[in-house]
Amino acid sequence: MNRKILIPLVLLLAGAALAGGGYWAGMRHGTGPAASDKDIPPPTSTERKVLYWHDPMVPGTRFDKPGKSPFMDMQLVPVYADEAGAGSGVIISPGLQQNLGIRFATVRRIALPDTLELVGTTQFDERRAEVVQTRVTGYIERLHTRAPLQRVRRGDAVATLFVPDWIAPQEEYLTLRRSGDESLTRAARDRMRALSIPDALVANAERSGKPQSRFVLTAPATGVLSELAVREGSMVAPGVTVAKISGTDKLWLLAEVPEALLGSIKTGMKVTVSPQSDPARQYTGRLSEILPGVIEATRTVQARLELDNHDGTLVPGQLMRIQLATADSPRRLVVPAEAVISSGKRSVVLVAAGDRSIEPVVVTTGRVYGDDIEISSGLAEGQKVVASGQFLIDSEANLKSILPKLGTAPAAAEPAPEKKAGPASLQGTGVVEQVSADALTLSHQPILALKWPAMTMDFTKPAPGDFPGIKAGQRVDFTFHQTEDGYVLDTVTPAAGAPQ
């Protein structure tokens, strides 16, 4: 074929192809005459919508464009629509949960006995104390136990008593006995009994033929010599206590019970105690009695407990940790104690919702059981609560602006606080950055009354539509006051020299 004819033919075919492609492309994208709305697919976008920018250190101030924070040496952080959450909750992405070290725990119901943890000291059981006394006048010739708190056993010698008044009656008795006059002998024997001369001493006199003037006082029980009131050579009279012996197989434990918990204890309750120095050792006992009277210095009542001490390992004066438990063990809702944020006036728990949001819930707490704390109201069994990282979430999600608005959150009834007179208006000067129906965004100068530096923040209007003459870019003088929901403007006027 002639080359002059081939080149124009190729160019013609290429032009036709381009025209046909343009036609079909126009039909596909809706620019051709046959395109319809149904044929146009919805636009797709993978970009996340930014609601506003803020400084995480001052989360209450919002900006409508990125830039450097006026408060810190850092760039403003965007807040996206899919992370803003709904209502009073806050969306926490899995990545942020990992970065903040957030750990969750389940609200569970477990059986917990009503227990009271107290402190007390051991002492001798005074009902088991025995005394060593003499019924005659005499002199302590020898002490066999010379120091208090010495251990003795039943029948051990305590002291040897010399009784000179016993000599004459015994000599008379021995003389009459040798004379063979039975009636006078019996009379002399009765006289010795009246003088409290022991029968064993009389038997010794009969065997030896000599009067016995020394008598050994013995321990009536096994225990500790808790008192020793005499010394060798001292004179004793009838009824004088020579020594006191306290048993150690059972001890008393005096527990200090706070006055407010007095109604929670009763006699007969089982107790478990352990020494402060060795918590692994445990002893059991029961509450014997509640002593009448309140100690004014500590506002406590003393409860007397009985402890079994057959092994003798406990000694008086030990400091003991006490647990009083009731017979029944009701089931209670508990969460880890670290999950509760307490401000002194209220307690808040961060609850995980189903849409990855975290919501603050006001709760009423009870007693602490080890690492757990009882929840009286506000939560239900099976809910997930934040057990760690709460304060980082508080900073990240600006919970300080959420918590005051928890009027709908379940909370225990609290008495309405007394209304106080509103604070005086505060003054400031600034430039209007943005005007909305409900608020003005002002870049204000330092406010010395509140120790504020220069910053940009939102001020709420008293009512929607107030200050209609104020526009963005104006320099204004304004007054405001603080409420529970933030800062509310009182007046806004153009600053001196500013355009009206």
Write a concise keyword list for the protein shown above.
disordered N terminus; rod-shaped; CusF_sf; about 500 residues; 7 helices; single chain; conserved putative lor/sdh protein from methanococcus maripaludis s2 fold; about 40% strand; alpha+beta; 5 domains
Question: Can you describe what's shown?
Answer:
Residues 1-19 form the signal peptide. InterPro entries: 3HB_CusB, Beta-barrel_RND_2, BSH_CusB, CusF_Ec, CusF_sf, CzcB_C, HMBD, MFP_Cation_Efflux. Keywords: Signal, Transport. Residues 334-393 form the CzcB-like C-terminal circularly permuted SH3-like domain. With 500 residues, the chain is of the alpha+beta class. It has 5 domains: 3-39; 50-84, no CATH class; 94-112 and 330-408, conserved putative lor/sdh protein from methanococcus maripaludis s2 fold (Beta Barrel), CATH 2.40.420.20; 126-246, Beta Barrel (OB fold (Dihydrolipoamide Acetyltransferase, E2P)); 426-494, OB fold (Dihydrolipoamide Acetyltransferase, E2P) (Beta Barrel), CATH 2.40.50. It has 7 helices and 31 strands. It has helices at residues 3-28, 94-100, 167-179, 182-194, 199-208, 390-397, 399-402, and strands at residues 50-55, 58-63, 77-80, 90-91, 103-106, 108-111, 115-124, 129-133, 138-143, 151-152, 157-162, 214-218, 223-228, 235-236, 241-246, 250-258, 270-275, 283-290, 300-308, 319-325, 331-336, 340-342, 347-352, 357-369, 372-377, 384-388, 426-435, 439-444, 455-460, 475-483, 486-494. The strands form 6 sheets. Strands 4, 5, 6, 21, 22, 23, 24, 25 and 26 form a 9-stranded antiparallel β-sheet that branches. It has a 6-stranded antiparallel beta barrel with strand order 7-16-19-18-17-20. It has a 5-stranded antiparallel β-sheet with strand order 29-28-27-30-31, with no helix packed on it. Residues 1-45 and 398-422 have low confidence and may be disordered.
